[in-house]
Predict the 3D structure of the following.
Amino acid sequence: MSADVAESQLAELLKKLGVNATVKARDDSTLDIETEDPSELIGHHGEVIDALQHVLRVILHRNDQEAGFIVDVDGYRVKQHQKLQELAKEKATQVLETGEPATLPPMTSFERRLVHVELKEIDGVETESLGDGQGRRVMIKKQG
């Protein structure tokens, strides 16, 4: 499926919600929303943007379309992912210096994957996902 279908479905959803915004496909997996008030669509800790992404996935799934799109508003997700990768590297450095494991806060499966991939390239540390459901988190420890 092309991003065009997802783009038009998200634009229609926003229109029905009374949100004045434009939607553009950044690439084959990311849809960018441009609006006057990005915070309105991001919400507290990304709750609104997460909900929009979930609703879009349901709509696409019901129409037998691929639903693996990431919805972003004003580069919010890009900035959050960069912060998460920086935190993971800082914690990995701390683990290497102290030898003590470090546990990151709970995060989504996508965010955990970002951490695992980011730290895979750092010699001397390994990662492991722990916990269940919304409490699932990544532990960083020395290899060994």
